[in-house]
Amino acid sequence: MNYTEAVDYIETIPKFTVKHPPEHTRELLSRLGNPQEGIKIIHVAGTNGKGSVCAYLNAMLLAGGKKTGLFTSPHLVRINERFQINGEDVSDEQFLNAFLKVEKAAKEYEAEGEGHPSYFETLFLMGMLIFKEAGVEYLVMETGLGGRLDATNVVEKPLACIITSISRDHTEYLGDTLEAIAGEKAGIIKAGVPVIYDASQPGPASVIAAKAKEMGSPAWPMEPSFYEMKTQSREGITFTFAYPGGEKAELAIPYVAKYQMMNASLAFYTMHILQDVHDIPKNVLAEGLSKIKWPCRMEMAAPGVIIDGGHNPQCVDALAAALESLYPGRKLIFLSGVLADKDWHSMFRRVLPLAKAFVAVTPDSPRALPAAELAAWLAQFSIPVSVQETLDQGVDTALALAGPEDVICAWGSLYSVGEIRHHLGLC
Description:
The protein is an alpha/beta fold. Helix content is 41%, strand content 19%. It is built from 16 helices and 17 strands. The protein has helices spanning 3-12, 22-31, 50-63, 92-110, 119-134, 171-174, 178-185, 202-215, 260-273, 275-278, 282-290, 313-326, 344-351, 371-378, 391-401, 414-423, and strands at residues 40-45, 68-71, 83-85, 88-89, 138-142, 160-163, 195-198, 219-222, 227-233, 236-242, 248-253, 299-302, 305-307, 332-336, 355-361, 385-388, 408-411. α13 links the parallel β14 (332-336) and β15 (355-361). α3 (50-63) packs across α9, α3 crosses α11 (282-290) and α12 (313-326) packs parallel to α13 (344-351). The longest helix has 19 residues, at 92-110.
């Protein structure tokens, strides 16, 4: 089997298996030699911002000269993006080697009457092998859909657990209240392991704090009052971070959205708490933050083109607030494709006041909302809408519509904006 065949096989996995309990993943890890053992792991869960927090952590560890692994999802264009070593995607050879070992163990387990590992479980198992064989010292690991029952949650003793902001998403799996969703995310908290969490929402914060107390875990809430913005421009944000107790740090991030201050602060605070473990000077940590590269998060992708992976109402609200701050009184061209199972009505209502025109596309997903259906709904608001079936056609149409002073904002799903970024020649 070659690399392309392996990727094609992995993409078919959801068609013939189901999600399994943690015991299933633990057994397969054991058969693979428990590759997760001996790696210093920081575990990150949440609804929004967890990928960004992971990227900030990775950037700071790299700035400190550590050999790092980064496990995130979803990928934007190529599946290899889910596994990074020292900031670089793993090679096709590393990917294939890990897949063959995982698939061999999976087939042997299946022969004993057990199910094949799920899509995400397969990728997690592959990741643990990849990182172990590469000799990474630190692994920054993002959960998949939830937390409590997530495949990544079989890691028994991480250095720290981080929980980012909580919002209503995947409610069919995680619950229909913020507190219920927070309870699922808080399932990653391990006994005695520090937990650092976004405490800006009282309901979710109280659930996380209670779980930390139950587990005997030191809890470090991150309040918005801990940081204060100094400057905001199209090049990024500078802000002051105040440690509890009075000490301050001056930080800079190359992102324009205010919510990134919370994500950066969660990561920076975690590294402060783990100072005795990594021994990286604070000025080096700050330098790492300033050099982060994490695409499709309010990314200034080209002159007059912004790409953002916002895919639920909370994300789009933050996106719109950032656009209102950067372009007061301006109308933008929105290039958008969304999934039908999202609360897309609320998402589009938030950006309607900012819209000069829409270009509607159909994402490459079986869950996609057809562009024609989106356009029919938008038509009631008397804003020009162009329907394009493919993302490439959508990009070309938006660029053709834009005048010299216009700004294009592409958003809707990480998969879609990843392809848009690829079409623009950015990856």
